[in-house]
Automatic annotation (TrEMBL):
<keyword id="KW-0614">Plasmid</keyword>
<protein>
    <submittedName>
        <fullName>Amidase</fullName>
    </submittedName>
</protein>
<dbReference type="InterPro" id="IPR036264">
    <property type="entry name" value="Bact_exopeptidase_dim_dom"/>
</dbReference>
């Protein structure tokens, strides 16, 4: 045997504001999709730094 497997699951809800586009200035926008993209990139980078010790799967339900 060379290892053991364990899993953790998290459910995350990302909320934004309706005024994220149009006349809202760029730095004041709260776009939920862009926040989710930044989270996914951060998780991917963290998992990539651990070589083969971890697998990160991201999915939409």
């Amino acid at each position: 045997m060379s290892g053991i497997q364990g899993t953790r699951r998290y459910r995350v809800r990302v909320a934004g504001e309706a005024a994220h586009a149009g006349t809202a200035v760029r730095h004041a926008r709260r776009n939920a999709l862009m926040a989710a993209v930044r989270m996914i990139v951060a998780i991917d980078r963290a998992a990539s730094g651990l070589a083969d010790a971890i697998v990160a799967k991201l999915a939409h339900r």
